[in-house]
């Protein structure tokens, strides 16, 4: 069954699993995120700059894209990045927004990036309205990604390979979509959202350690 196959896949490794059990040989050159590393202990939230990145699907359904949400923290002193929560969903926009609103109190998110291409731009406005209705006043930045998506995503390889981006082992579906990514992947929502989150958190200039000086 599915659970058995997923356990086997994890035990054997991606390449051997597809070659031996699925009769689908895959080159590790195509699957560039095979060896992802996980955090076991993370720093306190106060020591992290934390952002959320949302890549919303326009439609929800079995054949449609996933919506992907990445919450990533960057250690202010070392620059080490921790994926605090990474999820993929097949939800209608309103349901996705409500899920995010329930999740936000769990993480001290400083900024939200919202991917807005094609019809997604109006979704950002609806999302902001949902936040305001719940008295949540986190700045939301509209992101219009440029260039080839694959070329953007593969720039993550060095940081993932050397463990500079650490994953949350509890986020199984999200992690699997990252590990299964290749140029012809059917679904690339998780790695694309991760790319957006990395770009966003690297651009955050936190005022945490400067607030006190503003009082004098």
Defining key terms:
alpha/beta, disordered C terminus, Nucleotidyltransferase, domain 5, 8 helices
Structure description:
Helix content is 35%, strand content 19%. With 216 residues, it is of the alpha/beta class. The protein has a seven-stranded mixed beta sheet with strand order 1-7-4-3-2-5-6. Helix 1 (2-12) crosses helix 2 and helix 3 crosses helix 4 (120-133). The radius of gyration is 18 Å and the shape is globular. The termini are far apart. Residues 209-216 have low confidence and may be disordered.
Task: Please write out the topology.
Blueprint: H1 2-12, H2 14-20, E1 37-38, E2 48-55, E3 67-75, E4 81-89, H3 93-103, E5 111-115, H4 120-133, E6 140-143, H5 149-153, H6 157-161, E7 165-167, H7 172-179, H8 189-202
Helix pairs in contact: 1-2, 3-4
Q: Topology as H/E string?
A: HHEEEEHEHEHHEHH
Question: Which CATH class?
Answer: Alpha Beta
In whole angstroms, the N-to-C terminal distance is 65 Å
**Shape type:** globular
Mean pLDDT: 85
Q: Largest sheet at a glance?
A: 7 strands, mixed
Strand arrangement within the widest β-sheet reads: 1-7-4-3-2-5-6
Quaternary state reads single chain
CATH architecture: 2-Layer Sandwich
- Category by helix and strand content: alpha/beta
Q: Approximately how much beta-strand content do the residues carry?
A: 15-25%
CATH-defined topology: Nucleotidyltransferase, domain 5
In percent, how helical is the residue content? 25-40%
Rounded radius of gyration (Å): 18 Å
What ranges have pLDDT less than 50 throughout 5 or more consecutive residues?
209-216
* Number of alpha- plus pi-helical segments: 8
Number of domains: 1
Give the number of DSSP strands. 7
């Amino acid at each position: 069954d599915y659970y058995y196959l997923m356990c086997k896949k994890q035990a054997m490794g991606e390449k051997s699993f597809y070659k031996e059990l699925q009769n689908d040989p895959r080159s590790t050159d195509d699957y560039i995120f095979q060896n992802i590393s996980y955090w076991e202990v993370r720093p306190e939230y106060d020591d992290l700059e934390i952002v959320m990145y949302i890549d919303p699907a326009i439609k929800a359904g079995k054949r449609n894209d996933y919506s992907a949400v990445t919450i990533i923290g960057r250690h202010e002193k070392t620059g080490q990045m921790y994926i605090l929560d990474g999820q993929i969903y097949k939800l209608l926009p309103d349901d996705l927004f409500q899920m995010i609103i329930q999740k936000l109190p769990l993480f001290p998110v400083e900024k939200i990036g919202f991917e807005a291409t094609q019809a997604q731009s109006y979704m950002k406005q609806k999302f902001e309205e949902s936040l305001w209705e719940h008295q949540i006043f986190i700045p939301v930045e509209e992101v219009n990604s440029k260039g080839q998506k694959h070329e953007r995503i593969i720039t993550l390889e060095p940081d993932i390979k050397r463990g500079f981006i650490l994953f949350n082992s509890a986020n199984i579906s999200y992690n699997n979509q990252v590990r299964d990514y290749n140029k012809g992947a059917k679904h690339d929502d998780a790695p694309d959202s991760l790319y957006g989150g990395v770009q966003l958190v690297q651009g955050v200039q936190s005022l945490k350690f400067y607030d006190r000086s503003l009082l004098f």
